[in-house]
Amino acid sequence: SNVDLIRSSSVVVVAVPIGATAAVLAEVAEHIRPNSLLVELTSVKTPFVDALSGIPAPVLSLHPMFSPRVRDHRGEVCIVCKSQEPGGLGEYVERVLSAEGLELVRMGPDEHDRAMAVVQGLTHLQSLAAGHCLAALGFDPEASLAVASPVYRIRMAMIGRVVAQDPRLYAEIEMFNPHVKAVLQQLEHSTNLLARLIE
Questions:
Q1: Could you tell me which of 76, 105, 106, 80 has the C-alpha nearest to residue 93?
Q2: pTM of this prediction?
Q3: Pairing state of beta strands 77-82 and 59-64?
Q4: Is 106 in a helix, a strand, or coil?
Q5: At what angle do helices 167-176 and 123-137 cross, to 10 degrees?
Q6: Distance between CA atoms of residues 171 and 83, nearest Å
Q7: How far apart are CA 178 and CA 112, in angstroms?
């Protein structure tokens, strides 16, 4: 069970859907040993700051900016939002990640979520909206590749990659990040402005 694993592990890694994170962190807080390390990997940080501060053990808060399908980690970014004190298990885990070739970038939870509202929130939503638009138009993307420009091919690849992934992950990144709403409001404003100029 989760409780057996938490009580017997030196390092507890929480890698669950964003919507399940609060409940799992509460369970971990109740059973983790003080000399263990909690590593959490959510794509959104600020909603869980209070829960993480209640963990009676050191915490390492990470966000790997690449898919689990990536085989070669060299040069890939991993954001570090909360580090353990030097000399502990957290520092060891960071050394292992660096040895794997990951680029560790440090930022606070709010700074992280503001950046991810654009890097993930804006990017994913634009791909989903474009895919929805194509479907609503009855447009055949596959047939269009015969006349595609390089930029269009890149765009279709991005749309395909997003719509082929776990929809819950993409939905929760949009819904749980408190800064996404402002980004999407600006996107709507920018789109309407450009549409008026075209008209």
A1: 80
A2: 0.90
A3: antiparallel
A4: strand
A5: 120
A6: 28
A7: 11
Read off the amino acid at residue 52.
L
Are the beta carbons of 22 and 47 closer than 8 angstroms? yes
CA separation, residue 82 to residues 68, 72, 192 (Å): 21, 25, 39
Beta bridge partners of 108: none
Q: One-letter amino acid identity for 160?
A: G
Alpha carbon 52 to chain centroid, angstroms: 17
Specify the residue for token string 């003080």: 34
Residue pLDDT tens, the chain, 199 long: 889 999 999 999 999 999 999 999 999 999 999 999 999 999 999 999 999 999 999 999 999 999 888 888 899 999 999 876 667 899 999 999 999 999 999 999 999 999 999 999 999 999 999 999 999 999 998 899 999 999 999 999 999 999 998 899 999 999 999 999 999 999 999 999 999 999 9
63 close to 81: Cβ distance less than 8 angstroms: yes
76 in helix, strand or coil? coil
Identity of residue 185: Q
**Amino acid letter, 7:** R
Beta-carbon contacts of residue 142 (< 8 Å; ≥ 6 apart): none
Q: How far apart are CA 8 and CA 5, in angstroms?
A: 5
Dist. CA 119–CA 121, nearest whole Å: 6
Cα(120)–Cα(97) distance, integer angstroms: 22
The one-letter amino acid code at 17 reads P
